[in-house]
Amino acid sequence: MSQLLTIASEEVQNPLVPPIPELVIGLIAFVIVFAVFAWKLLPNINKVLEERREAIEGGIEKAEAAQTEANSVLEQYKAQLAEARHEAARLRSEAQEQGAALIAEMRAEGQRQREEIIAAGHAQIEADRKAAATALRQDVGKLATDLAGKLVGESLEDHARQSRVINRFLGELEEKAEAAR
Amino acid sequence: MSADPTQVLAFETDCHIFDGCGFPAPGLHSFLFEPLWGDADSNLYFNKPMLLALLGSVIVIGFFWAAFRKPKMVPGKLQMVAEFGYDFIRRGVVYETLGRKEGEKYVPLVVSMFFFIWMMNLWSVVPLAQFPVTSIIAYPAVLALIVYVLWVSLTFKRHGFVGGWKNITGYNKDLGPVLPLAMLIEFFSNLLVRPFTHAVRLFANMFAGHTLLVLFTIASWYLLNGIGIAYAGVSFIMVIVMTVFELFIQALQAYVFVLLTCTFIQGALAEHH
């Protein structure tokens, strides 16, 4: 009970009236904090935050630039590759065409040569045969007339008769040759 | 046993329930301290809240000094935490209300004010200290006074003498006959009541919080007798719950204080209609 009386009797200060010394200390305490923050610490950290922001943005920009370059190089390579493929295909088809043309040409040439040779052979044979036939006819005719003249002793000057006789003789010869074959 | 309740902690008494002694309830005397040095009757003295205030400044500066003295591009843990707090106030309070351009100037004030108040509030739950400095009206008052001087001078600087008064009294021709009444109310509300409520909001929250903590703490001790022990347990749980709640309120009130500061500055800089 005495305690309560002591409290009641004590002159309790109004809690809403600030005592001067505490105001002063409060002001000092806050001003110190504010001063150190404003003078040193916040400029310090702001600088670093700004640097970091720049570094990050710079990094992003760099990465973007690298990406763009890589993309362009890739495009270039792709274009080059496509071009090379195209070129190769073109060369291949060209070579094929050329090869085919060459073969066809060769074949035609060979054919032509073969035919030429054959034709030449035929002509030669024909000519030889004709020449041989002519020469043989003359020789045989002459021999036969000579022989016949000698044998019969009569001149077979009558041309018509002469020819007839020769032809008949030759015909017989040819028949003989035919039979002998 | 001393008769002066300001000198007696609840635990130093042998006073328990059923011992025929009354409950030593906390009251205004819980917020009075005998000077550690000097004479309370003169204006030259030094007491526990003053010590805590100065010590709090040292702690705030020490923490941020350690974190921001040599800041690194890639922050360490301490710097990261400090940066988070700094960025939270700068972005979430200053830029949000004042904008980046106008607000930049006031960042140091608002940031230092927030962490200063928070530290002063935090003393409430720091063992041995266990007293929120801001529950002494002088500390919120001096901060509110700084803000008051700042925004009033900014108003007149920005708008000139007549424009400044128009801004403070909310001059608006469209109000017609109600205008004088509106101006009178605005004048009282802005110029006279505002700094008072600004300071008292913080003070009263911390005062009430501390009173509750002291109440439950004393009760936990006082009830430790006989069947009272059961109630003491409940009371002690309340101490823990209230401590957690106070931790929340301490940060919240510091935040509210600086948010209002920014709002006042913003009002001072805004174009009057």
TrEMBL record, chain A:
Keywords: ATP synthesis, Cell membrane, CF(0), Coiled coil, Hydrogen ion transport, Ion transport, Membrane, Transmembrane, Transmembrane helix, Transport. Gene3D superfamilies: F1F0 ATP synthase subunit B, membrane domain. Pfam families: ATP-synt_B. Its main location: membrane. Residues 46-101 form a coiled coil. SUPFAM superfamilies: F1F0 ATP synthase subunit B, membrane domain. It is found in: Cell membrane. The keyword Transmembrane helix applies. It is a single-pass membrane protein. InterPro entries: ATP_synth_B-like_membr_sf, ATP_synth_b/b'su_bac/chlpt, ATP_synth_F0_bsu_bac, ATP_synthase_B_chain. It comes from the Bacteria. The keyword Coiled coil applies. The chain crosses the membrane at residues 23-42. Belongs to the ATPase B chain family. F-type ATPases have 2 components, F(1) - the catalytic core - and F(0) - the membrane proton channel. F(1) has five subunits: alpha(3), beta(3), gamma(1), delta(1), epsilon(1). F(0) has three main subunits: a(1), b(2) and c(10-14). The alpha and beta chains form an alternating ring which encloses part of the gamma chain. F(1) is attached to F(0) by a central stalk formed by the gamma and epsilon chains, while a peripheral stalk is formed by the delta and b chains. F(1)F(0) ATP synthase produces ATP from ADP in the presence of a proton or sodium gradient. F-type ATPases consist of two structural domains, F(1) containing the extramembraneous catalytic core and F(0) containing the membrane proton channel, linked together by a central stalk and a peripheral stalk. During catalysis, ATP synthesis in the catalytic domain of F(1) is coupled via a rotary mechanism of the central stalk subunits to proton translocation. HAMAP family: ATP_synth_b_bprime (MF_01398). This is ATP synthase subunit b. It comes from Streptomyces fragilis. The gene is atpF.
TrEMBL record, chain B:
It is a multi-pass membrane protein. Keywords: ATP synthesis, Cell membrane, CF(0), Hydrogen ion transport, Ion transport, Membrane, Transmembrane, Transmembrane helix, Transport. Coiled coil: none annotated. Its main location: membrane. It comes from the Bacteria. The chain crosses the membrane at residues 50-68, 106-124, 136-154, 175-196, 202-224, 254-270. InterPro entries: ATP_synth_F0_asu (IPR000568), ATP_synth_F0_asu_AS (IPR023011), ATP_synth_F0_asu_bact/mt (IPR045083), F0_ATP_A_sf (IPR035908). It is found in: Cell membrane; Membrane. NCBIfam families: ATP_synt_6_or_A. Belongs to the ATPase A chain family. Key component of the proton channel; it plays a direct role in the translocation of protons across the membrane. PANTHER family: ATP SYNTHASE SUBUNIT A. This is ATP synthase subunit a. It comes from Streptomyces fragilis. The gene is atpB.
